[in-house]
Automatic annotation (TrEMBL):
<keyword id="KW-0418">Kinase</keyword>
<dbReference type="Pfam" id="PF00370">
    <property type="entry name" value="FGGY_N"/>
</dbReference>
<dbReference type="InterPro" id="IPR043129">
    <property type="entry name" value="ATPase_NBD"/>
</dbReference>
<protein>
    <submittedName>
        <fullName>FGGY-family carbohydrate kinase</fullName>
        <ecNumber>2.7.1.-</ecNumber>
    </submittedName>
</protein>
<dbReference type="InterPro" id="IPR000577">
    <property type="entry name" value="Carb_kinase_FGGY"/>
</dbReference>
<feature type="domain" description="Carbohydrate kinase FGGY N-terminal">
    <location>
        <begin position="4"/>
        <end position="249"/>
    </location>
</feature>
<dbReference type="InterPro" id="IPR018483">
    <property type="entry name" value="Carb_kinase_FGGY_CS"/>
</dbReference>
<comment type="similarity">
    <text>Belongs to the FGGY kinase family.</text>
</comment>
<dbReference type="Pfam" id="PF02782">
    <property type="entry name" value="FGGY_C"/>
</dbReference>
<dbReference type="InterPro" id="IPR018485">
    <property type="entry name" value="FGGY_C"/>
</dbReference>
<dbReference type="GO" id="GO:0016301">
    <property type="term" value="F:kinase activity"/>
</dbReference>
<dbReference type="InterPro" id="IPR018484">
    <property type="entry name" value="FGGY_N"/>
</dbReference>
<feature type="domain" description="Carbohydrate kinase FGGY C-terminal">
    <location>
        <begin position="261"/>
        <end position="454"/>
    </location>
</feature>
<dbReference type="InterPro" id="IPR050406">
    <property type="entry name" value="FGGY_Carb_Kinase"/>
</dbReference>
<keyword id="KW-0808">Transferase</keyword>
Amino acid sequence: METVIGIDIGTQSTKALVIDHHGRILAEHSQGYRVDTPRPLWAEQWPDVWWEAVLGCLRACLEAPGVDPRGVKGLCVSSLYGGSGIPVDAEIRPLHPCLIWMDRRAEAQVQWVKEHVNLTRLGDITGNSVDSYYGFTKMMWLKAERPEVWERTRYLLPPNSYINYCLSGEIAIDHSSAGNIGGIYDLAARTWSQEMLDALGLDRDKLPTRLVDSGAPVGGLLPSLADSLGLHTDIPVVAGGVDAAMATLAAGATRPGNHVAMIGTSMCWGVINQRVDAGQGLISMPHVLNSDRDLYTFGGALTAGASVSWFVDTLCGEDRVAAGEHGSAYDQLEPLARDLPPGADGLLFLPYLMGERSPVWDAQASAGFIGLSLYHRRHHLYRAVLEGVTFALRHNMEAGSQQGVTLDAHLIVVGGATRSDLWMQIIADVTRMPVYTYRENVEAALGAALLAGQATGLLDLTQPLQHSTLVERARPSEAAAQQYDELFDLYCQLYPTLKPIMHRLNTTDSLGE
């Protein structure tokens, strides 16, 4: 049986899966690891951890019953947003850990850019703004704070580009990963921007010369590696791309207007379009499908499911006890929260437990419950948390609607949040859209496998596949939607009103004055 392999290098684990010509998953395996956080706001990883996990997952999948290694036609790699990229020397040996997406150490570089670079021009060229999330500010940090590393660096490689080199021996970067660096990528020309590189003081020769579509092969599998895995030599290694766009592809987003919300630990909402406005505070890059034409524009909350987990872990010990050995605190909270009206009886929650990304872009933003009274109980707070994260979703969706693309009239949701019927109904009511989910697990590794399938001729992504089943989960209630419209307006007023206090509380020196 002919098959392809999709690999996704995540922040906390790597996963590989094998699919057939219908897109059906035949085998899958994951391997976990940790993020290194040597200082507050720092988050980095050595690429050897990723490579070991990729090999472990590949071997486990190829040993699974029903999988014939000789039938594998190709593979593709999706990866977390690698921020700075991996600094490697001329022999492609890593010189420093990769400063990944959640690393926030480059705040001084952000301030420098705001003071010395024309931000309007930067936005016009790159379709993006400036924040320590973006890779170009992390590259500037490496140059300023690790000059000995910078001097020895031959390339700065995104995670999937580095793994593709390990697999094929070829150096290339896909357009989605290049665009997500922000700052130095010309979104219209689909190439590096020499103008912005000069303005930011970054070196063009440290960036891969070869830019390719996410669905294009970068090279063939190395003979030594093929022999050790039992695969054919020279099967194509497909470029791949950024995991958020890959998961969106797996959820069926293939044309402008398709949009998907991924709600797990964090929340990411993305839409396919063909024009951007950096002033709306979202992130844009070429999509992993039709990357010469289509863009993937997204935004998200840093703590979505993490807000829910924090609340339950911190305040719901009694509910965990009541649930017993085989239940969960959620089993206790959901029925009570479901009976509450929109707004949880006068309660709002700002889900900024680790600062916030789009469209706020404020590392010093903080979370809070507003409207608390002696009347409120845990299930009120639980519902308010679900609603607060959903308001953050709508905040990003409204910013996306300003890009000029007409959104599909329904919203697809994937991720751990789909286990909650209550949350799906809240999302439908807040966004005024029917909510659909998949019966199967839809994720970035599947998107990578689909690209590999298209590149090898095993799949045709213009045709419906049998890999998943879309299910309607909730339809909006007009009465609830009207109440949520009013609450969302109040939610949007909270951050600008409370911002000075948030910043004061987050400035340690000022508290000692």
